[in-house]
Amino acid sequence: MKKCGRCAKPAVHHITEILEGEVKALHLCETCIKDYLDNPESTETESEEVETESDPNEAETVCESCGITFKEFRSRGRLGCGECYNAFRTELLQLIENIHSSDTHCGKIPKREPQASQIQFDLARVRTELREAIEREDYEDAARLRDKLKSLEAEAFGTPS
């Protein structure tokens, strides 16, 4: 979630201004939007430059599988195929970070049985780390992760470790 350009509260109003051909995005909270609407000329607000047009000399990224360009994706709002995620990885990460202020999904823990959900999450994470350690041929780390996995499984399923 974006933060307000004037204070640290979450921004709930997003304004795009075009002044003298310059495009700026403003992100304001409930309190600051009232001040802004009373005095829009105020320069205290942090604003982002919005990219209006890409450099014509810059090569357009194209998905080799389906042939869609990133510009087409932006206009349609949909990727052409699963390979587009790899072809546009850099651009998508920038877009996601711009929208969500992070490129990592945090998620929420369910209110019902949060302990069980956390253990399931930890099990999946340790299994992934174990697989990666084996692929790297880091067998000491793999052994440590195997033992951790056994203790988590014992905790989750009530089996002796």
Protein described:
- The protein has 161 residues and is mainly α.
- It folds into three domains: 1-52, no CATH class; 54-106, no CATH class; 114-157.
- Helices cover 45% and strands 11% of the residues.
- The chain has six helices and three strands, in the order ββαβααααα.
- A three-stranded antiparallel beta sheet has the order 1-2-3.
- A hairpin with a 2-residue loop joins strand 1 (13-19) and strand 2.
- Helix 5 packs antiparallel against helix 6 (139-157).
- The two termini are 42 Å apart.
Question: Secondary-structure map with pairings?
Answer:
Elements: E1 13-19, E2 22-28, H1 30-38, E3 47-49, H2 70-76, H3 84-87, H4 89-100, H5 114-135, H6 139-157
Antiparallel strand pairs: 1-2, 2-3
Order of helices and strands: EEHEHHHHH
Radius of gyration: 23 Å
Strand percentage: 5-15%
Low-confidence stretches: 50-55
Q: How much is the average pLDDT?
A: 80
Relative helix content: 40-55%
Dominant shape? flat
Structural class: mainly alpha
Number of domains: 3
Can I get a quick summary?
The chain is mainly α and 161 residues long.
What descriptors fit this protein?
161 residues; mainly alpha; 3 domains
